[in-house]
Each structure stands twice: as C-alpha cells, then as structure tokens.
From TrEMBL:
Keywords of this entry: Glycosyltransferase, Transferase
Family assignment from sequence similarity: Belongs to the thymidine/pyrimidine-nucleoside phosphorylase family.
InterPro entries tied to this protein: Glycosyl_Trfase_fam3, Glycosyl_Trfase_fam3_N_dom, Glycosyl_Trfase_fam3_N_dom_sf, Nuc_phospho_transferase, PYNP-like_C_sf, PYNP_C, Pyrmidine_PPas_bac/euk, Pyrmidine_PPase_CS
GO terms assigned for molecular function: thymidine phosphorylase activity
The EC number(s) this enzyme carries: 2.4.2.4
Organism taxonomic ancestry: Bacteria, Bacillati, Actinomycetota, Actinomycetes, Micrococcales
Top-level taxon of origin: Bacteria
Signal peptide (from-to): none
Listed Pfam families: Glycos_trans_3N (PF02885), Glycos_transf_3 (PF00591), PYNP_C (PF07831)
Full protein name: Thymidine phosphorylase
Subunit structure: Homodimer.
Pyrimidine nucleoside phosphorylase C-terminal domain ranges (all copies): 352-426
Length: 449
C-alpha cells in the first residue's frame, strides 16, 4: 500500500520497458498504466523516468482506452468527494453543476458564473487553483477581497453548498495527488501541451470532485494552451468522452482566446469587473460568455427555458455573490486594494484596432506582479493591465490604450516591453469583423463516429 492508497508490486513491471514501449508507438495496458502511476506517486519510479514517458506520450500520443485508464489511475490516487447528501425540501437529490476553463487571459468568468447559476438554486462546487505563468488563478483574484478565505474543509464546503449554493475554494491536497506531482513535473519538462495529459489531468480532478454535471470552456488562440481550433476541438472531445464514461454529464463550449476577455487582466481589477457584470453591466464579451456557460450548466441539470441574463439584471446573482463571499469571511462591501503606481500607454495613430494579443497582455500583467513564476511566490492584489480598447474599437492618436498597475515601479518597463507589437491598428479605419466568441459546442452525442 503506497501513502496515496494505491497498491502495486514494485517487481510487476519495469519503467524502462514501459518508456520503450511508448517510444516505439506501442500501447500501454491497464495494468502497466496503473503500475506506473502508483509507483511514480509513491516515489519508486523517479522523476527522470516519468519525464521520459511524458515526453514519449507528448510525441506519440495515447489512444482513448489508454487515456481512460490513465485518468482512472490518477483518480484512484486520492479521495473522491460525494455531494449526494445534498437534498431539496422534498428529499430529492440536488444535482451539482461545475465549470472548468482551460485557461486564458482576463478569464474571470467563474466569479460571476458560480453565483449566477447558484441563484437558480443549483449547487455549484467550484474547486479552483492558483495561477501559474501568464493565465491568472481564480483564487488569486478572490484573495484580493479583504478577509476572503480560500481554504475550506470538506464539511465546510458541503455546508456552504447546502446553505448558499455557491462555493469557490481551493482543491484540497487529497484530490488526485498523482496529478499534482505529475503536473509539477510536466511544467518543468516541456510536456504540458500533450492533449492526453491535459485531458486526464483536468478530468481526474473534476471526476474526483464528484460533480453531477460539468461544462468545459475549451479555449483556442494566442492566449490559450491550444493555439489552433483543431487542437482545442480534439482536447474538448477527449474530455467530454472521459466525463461521459465516468457518468458525469459533460459538454464543452469552444471559445476564442486570441484577445483577452473583458477589459482587465489582474486580480482586484478582475473582481471589480466581475462585480460590474453581477450588477447588470460589464463588458459585452464577459457577459456573453457568462450567460452562455450558465445556460449550458442549467440545462445540464434539467433547468431549461430560462434566460440567465435575467438574474444578472434583477440582482439575484448579486445576492448570491454577496452570500458566497460573506460565507468565506470576505467583505463584499470593502474597497479593493489599489496598486501604488500606474503608467498609461497611449495610441500612436488613429484607426480601428484589429488585433490585441492575449498572450502579450497576460505576460505584461504577470510581469507587473499579478501572477507568479514559482508556486511559492506571492501575487500583488492591485497589479495588472486595464485595457481601454479591444479589437473592433475605433482608437484616436493620443488616447489611452493600456493602464499598467503595480506596487513596484521597476516592473513597468518590462511590462511595456511585453506589449510592444501586441496590437494592430488599421489606419484606414474601416469596419473590422471580430471572431465569434463561442465558436462550437461538443456534447456526448457528437462523439460517435
Ligand atoms: N490544467 C490542468 O489542470 N492540467 C493541465 O494539464 C493543464 C491545465
């Protein structure tokens, strides 16, 4: 018995033999996969051997059967949560709905989405992470709210779900510990971008979390893991298949991440923008995606025919937000932290903005202190980038394009560097078509054939 609860016989397989098999385009059996995950999580197989296997998987792929076994082995490495005790007044089970985004710049959607769906009486257990690299973390954003606590015990989580319907909190260490170790290794060995490994990493955590329904926001474009729409589609299909096979009602929206979402990338400034959306305002793209994902989550638990935009306008989603923040010791009325320094970048020419590179904006926000380079780093609550124009908008020479916010003035030059060449302005000023935000939807019904 390993410390993770997985059992394995050290002499049953040989890591080198499994690496060679995948290197030579072979398929790993269920027993081989279970052994490798258990032996690696336990420390019997070393980082160097798992790195070699991860690279072989990145180069040669895994088939659906292998991905299913890999995911199941990672789930088995830890605890599984159970929300079946949540009951309505009539004693009937209350189905939970969750959302997962593959990550993008300015992606604060979880913040307005969880209370919006909860305002229809649906429990939303949103176990989230902190940011690494250019994409922000949901917990980092919420921690900008004075007093707000990310860590809840399992019983606190259940109680809050029952009483308030919405919880956004840190995923505990007991959920898919094999993935925690493997993800940290992939991060430093150039093996993050393998579709089988991304799909199994995300879905092992979501299946272990025990949600009844899951909506995936799979992003494609300059600011996403998946740069091409074809790769994003393949990732979405793989994850929908894994969720469906595990009995989770899973669907995916494919969404554009060439440009950042909304007009803010940072922590406190993204909370501020989310509150605008919950007040019935906010940028059109953030509202559109929040409403589209809410509709998908509500339909997945059988609530059809409602327009989720309604509860943004009538204040019910805001009531849920306030209850959710207060339940985790946050003060929804407190002022948010402000950065000590700001610096404005203005437009050199007049015309129509035709491109704004999400990756460059994410990198600038990160360099200003909104993100971390190492897990142990802390983030600045007030740091980030405010955008004053997005693709499709008219810009006039001299008008502000970006406001850079940071507590450390010396960070501004490097952030400015990141933004050089990050956008195009068509000086002819003609109309510009912006790509559709939600460009496809994949459900279990799309997987046959
Ligand atoms: N997010 C995850 O949780 N895992 C991955 O592999 C990539 C993104």
């Amino acid at each position: 018995m390993s410390p993770t609860g997985l059992t394995y016989d050290p002499s049953a397989h040989d890591a080198v033999e499994l690496i060679r098999l995948k290197r030579d385009h072979g398929h790993l059996s269920q027993a081989q996969i279970e052994w490798m995950i258990a032996a690696y999580t336990d420390g019997y197989v070393g980082d160097e051997q798992m790195s070699a296997l991860a690279m072989a998987i990145l180069l040669n792929g895994m088939n659906r059967v292998e991905i299913g076994h890999w995911t199941a082995a990672m789930i088995a490495s830890g605890e599984r949560m159970d929300f079946s005790s949540l009951r309505g007044p009539d004693g009937a089970r209350r189905l939970t709905a969750d959302k997962h985004s593959t990550g993008g710049v300015g992606d604060k959607i979880t913040l307005p989405l969880a209370p919006l769906v909860a305002s229809y009486g649906v429990p939303v257990p949103q176990l989230s992470g902190r940011g690494l690299g250019h994409t922000g973390g949901t917990l980092d954003k919420l921690e900008a709210i004075p007093g707000w606590q990310a860590d809840l015990s399992n019983s606190e989580l259940l109680r809050q779900l029952d009483e308030v319907n919405a919880v956004i909190c840190a995923a505990g260490p007991g959920l898919a510990p094999a993935d925690k170790k493997l993800y940290a290794l992939r991060d430093v060995t150039g093996t993050v971008e393998a579709i089988p490994l991304i799909a199994s990493s995300i879905m092992s955590k979501k299946i272990a979390e025990g949600t009844d329904a899951l909506v995936l926001d799979v992003k494609a474009g300059a600011g996403a893991f998946m740069k091409s729409r074809a790769d994003a589609r393949e990732l979405a299909r793989t994850m929908v298949a894994l969720g469906t096979d595990a009995g989770v009602k899973t669907s995916a929206l494919l969404t554009d991440m060439d440009s950042p979402l909304g007009l803010t990338a940072g922590n406190a400034i993204e909370v501020e923008e989310s509150v605008e959306v919950l007040s019935g305002g906010g940028p059109a793209d953030v509202v559109e995606l929040t409403v589209a994902l809410a509709r998908e989550m509500l339909e997945a638990v059988g609530i059809r025919g409602v327009d989720p935009a309604e509860n943004l306008r009538n204040g019910r989603a805001m009531d849920s937000w306030r209850a959710m923040i207060s339940a985790q010791s946050g003060d929804p009325d407190a002022g948010l932290p402000q950065a000590k320094h700001s610096h404005t970048i203005t437009a050199g020419v007049s015309g129509t903005m035709t491109r704004l590179d999400a990756m460059a904006v994410g990198l600038a926000a990160w360099r200003l202190g909104a993100g971390r380079a190492r897990k142990q780093d802390s983030v600045q609550a007030g740091a980030g980038v405010r955008m004053h124009a997005k693709p499709g908008d008219a810009v006039a020479a001299g008008q502000p394009l970006f406001t850079l916010l940071t507590d450390d003035e010396h960070r501004i030059a490097r952030a400015e560097e990141a933004l050089q060449g990050s956008m195009d302005v068509d000086t002819e000023g003609g109309p510009h078509e912006t790509p559709e935000l939600v460009f496809d939807r994949i459900t279990a019904a799309d997987l046959t054939g």
